[in-house]
Design goal:
The chain has 135 residues and is of the alpha+beta class. Helix content is 50%, strand content 13%.
Length: 135
């Protein structure tokens, strides 16, 4: 699985260009996370204020104009929620076997994707955001 996430500024937020397998991993991680969650308050506590928006965000991924990647426009709250999802979902399973059975990937895949997201966002220039796009 590719751990490099392509990210660019999009207005006040970010445009994430995900491979199909990265998107699939996020969708499966969210489903697994939500299965073990008892309330919207728990989702907000763990994933932040935008945690409840992730299902719609991931469902709204669109094919890139060229290539095979999927594009998501996310504000900083949503990007944080995606990162928190990737970091917290592995801890919800007692064993690697149970995690792999439910998510269809290894814990390290989620953690590596989280690291790739951080590197990509951290690598953006510090130019001030514009008023275009999400946010």
């Amino acid at each position: 699985m590719r751990t490099r996430v392509l990210v660019e500024r999009a207005g006040r937020g970010f445009r994430l260009r995900l491979t199909a397998s990265q998107h699939w991993l996020l969708v499966n991680a969210l489903a697994a996370f939500l299965e073990g969650t008892v309330s919207a308050t728990e989702v907000e506590l763990v994933l932040g204020p935008a945690g409840g928006e992730l299902d719609a965000l991931l469902a709204g991924a669109e094919p890139a104009e060229s290539g095979s990647r999927l594009v998501l426009d996310a504000d900083i709250r949503q990007a944080h929620a995606l990162h928190a999802l990737l970091m917290n979902t592995p801890a919800r399973f007692a064993t690697e076997e149970a995690f792999h059975h439910r998510v269809g990937a290894f814990r390290e895949n989620l953690l590596n994707l989280a690291a790739g997201l951080c590197q990509a966002v951290g690598g953006l220039t510090t130019a001030p955001p514009t008023d275009e796009g999400p946010g």
